[in-house]
Specification:
Radius of gyration: 36 Å
Strand content: under 5%
Number of helices: 14
InterPro entries: Homeodomain-like_sf (IPR009057), HTH_CenpB_DNA-bd_dom (IPR006600), HTH_Psq (IPR007889), Zinc_finger_PHD-type_CS (IPR019786), Znf_FYVE_PHD (IPR011011), Znf_PHD-finger (IPR019787), Znf_RING/FYVE/PHD (IPR013083)
Number of domains: 4
Pfam families: HTH_psq, PHD
Keywords: DNA-binding, Metal-binding, Nucleus, Zinc, Zinc-finger
Largest sheet: 3 strands, antiparallel
Distance between the termini: 62 Å
GO molecular function: DNA binding; zinc ion binding
Strand order of the largest sheet: 1-3-2
Number of strands: 7
Helix content: 55-70%
Structural class: mainly alpha
Mean pLDDT: 60
Subcellular location: Nucleus
DNA sequence: CCTAGTAATGATGCCCAGAT
DNA sequence: ATCTGGGCATCATTACTAGG
């Protein structure tokens, strides 16, 4: 029976159903009027099939869950936190970890194919190459640094989050929290995945019209990330920049330079230095204009007096600058507090993520309850129909009993035999189904076991490689004495040197050779430190 | 109303070519 | 070497439809 191509839309069904209800049309008439097969309309009319149903199996995440994830990814993208495929897959994994629903995903993580389908179902998500891989983006230019920060500020302003610079906790007003380090590192830091694995494919909202918001500033330019920021002004910044003209990511990697990354302290320091510079330039300009004006108006004598006054003013300004420096020191202290706040906020973000997952789980439970109710309803309807059948049979038996006794007896025996046969067949089918189920479960378990073994093997290889790398930093002196050198500065330990161990590759580095020394007053034991060579 | 055939969909694995 | 997208085959599931 070849199936006729579908010629109707969901709204036709809705219109047909409304016509039946409002105008009292018959099912056949309505079906004819809207060009829908009668049986299809009848099924939908009786609720046997959903009105907006799609062919094929439903996705394993509900429409609400998928939409929630899409909205979250778009929102994150709007503030510069583009979510990678891995991030989204990890979100799904976290969701499924806390959910008992059945799904085909290995280790609760959907695969690349699922991602394709996901993007297909939600075309407002599209993927593209990570901007860090674009060579044009790593060309060094102070102008670009300024542009990036300006765009970042503009974006924060657009998202009503400009005050984040003073109130970083506002970063966490989203559904799933993210750390400020996520923004500053230039790649996303979802609550479920550390920002340690930037994937080359990024999902972000596709601008539907050219009039939409300007492109995101994107990740922090590599050159910005490597700029030594401190009390330095733009001059020293430029010096450093000219030392690294147009270096590609690979070249940086070869030279042992860290990937794009900037600490919270560095970010605030940069912003403060930039504002101070702007203020200073404004002051100088004002002073110059003022002087020109006075030169024209006043004579030589007055000028001398003015010069004396100016000297006094300059002294006062110097005094003010000294005070400003003291303020800066005070701000440095505050940055330590900011770093602490960031840690607290990360925890808050995780709590928020937890809440989201709980909500999703509740939704899943609701679905489960609905399913159970549906199953119950079906069982009841089957029971009712079975009862009706039994009644009919009883009626037949009564009629047969009332007829000639010997024939009725024979018929009864025959019916009994048939009934026994049917019951036997049914039992056998059930037994086979149970066997099949067991076989499938065993097979799945075996696959999971093999997967775990594979993961363990890979982890062992990674660990062994890391140990080898650490060994490579042991240098042998002329007197055959072996010493360990810091892989960052290639120097051995000094007397008062503090060392820090990478939690991922077992390398030891001078604390001062890492950005960790900026986090003064914080217990480093609580940090998951990843060195720049990882 | 029921049934059997067909279409559509979601997910997987495998392979390939291209980009980095 | 690694990652990606695209194509293809496969399986399972569900919706749709014609005909009995």
């Amino acid at each position: 029976m070849p199936r006729r191509p579908k010629t109707w839309e969901a709204q036709d069904i809705v219109a047909a159903l409304q016509s039946i209800k409002a105008n009292g049309l018959s099912l056949r008439a309505a079906a004819k009027m809207y060009g829908i097969p009668t049986s299809t309309l009848r099924d939908k009319f009786h609720g046997k099939r959903a009105i907006f149903a799609r062919c094929g199996p439903s996705p394993f995440l509900t429409a609400e869950e998928e939409q929630k994830i899409v909205n979250w990814a778009i929102k994150m993208g709007n503030v510069g936190l583009k979510q990678t495929r891995i991030d989204i897959q990890n979100v799904v994994k976290t969701l499924l970890d806390k959910d008992s629903r059945e799904h085909p995903f290995v280790n609760n993580t959907p695969g690349r194919r699922w991602w394709r389908g996901f993007v297909k179902r939600h075309p407002n998500l599209k993927h593209r190459k990570h901007q860090l891989t674009d060579k044009a983006r790593v060309m060094v230019s102070e102008e670009r640094i300024e542009t990036w920060f300006k765009e970042f500020e503009a974006r924060l302003q657009k998202e009503r989050a400009l005050s984040m610079l003073n109130e970083p906790h506002r970063l966490f007003d989203d559904e799933i929290g993210s750390s400020i380090d996520g923004i500053l590192n230039g790649f996303p830091a979802s609550s479920t995945s550390a920002p340690s694995t930037p994937a080359p494919v990024t999902a972000h909202p596709a601008p539907s019209t050219p009039s939409q918001a300007t492109p995101l500033p994107g990740p922090l330019p590599t050159d910005v990330a490597q700029t030594p920021l401190g009390n330095e002004s733009s001059a020293s910044c430029s010096e450093y920049l000219t030392a690294l003209p147009g270096m590609s990511q690979n070249q940086q990697k070869k030279k042992g330079l860290p990937p794009a990354a900037i600490t919270v302290a560095e970010f605030f320091r940069y912003m403060r230095a930039r504002r101070a510079r702007e203020n200073q330039e404004e002051k100088v300009e004002l002073r110059r204009k003022d002087r020109e004006l006075k030169e024209r108006e006043m004579g030589e004598d007055e000028k001398r007096i003015d010069e004396e006054d100016e000297e006094d003013e300059e002294k006062e300004e110097e005094k003010e600058e000294d005070e400003e420096q003291e303020d800066e020191e005070q701000v440095d202290k505050e940055q330590v507090e900011v770093a602490e706040a960031v840690m607290l906020l990360q925890e808050e973000g995780e709590r928020l993520a937890e809440d989201i997952m709980v909500t999703c789980t509740e939704m899943g439970q609701e679905m489960e309850e609905k399913k159970t109710q549906e199953a119950e309803r079906k069982r009841n309807s089957k029971k009712v129909s079975w009862e009706v059948q039994q009644k009919n049979k009883e009626q037949v038996m009564e009629i047969m009993n009332s007829a000639h006794e010997p024939d009725a007896e024979e018929l009864r025996k025959k019916l009994k035999r048939e009934h026994k046969k049917k019951a036997k067949k049914l039992k056998q089918a059930k037994r086979e189904a149970r066997k099949e189920k067991k076989r499938k479960a065993a097979s799945r378990k075996k696959e999971e076991h093999e997967y775990d073994a594979d993961v363990l093997r890979k982890d062992t290889i990674v660990e062994s490689k890391a140990k080898d790398r650490a060994k490579s930093n042991i240098k042998t002196l002329r007197n055959d004495q072996e010493i360990y050198v810091c892989p960052a500065c290639l120097k051995p330990s000094g007397n008062d040197e503090k060392w820090i161990s990478c939690d991922h590759c077992i390398r030891w580095l001078h604390l001062t050779c890492t950005s960790m020394h900026l986090l003064r007053g914080i217990d480093l034991a609580g940090f998951d430190y990843r060195c720049k060579f990882c």
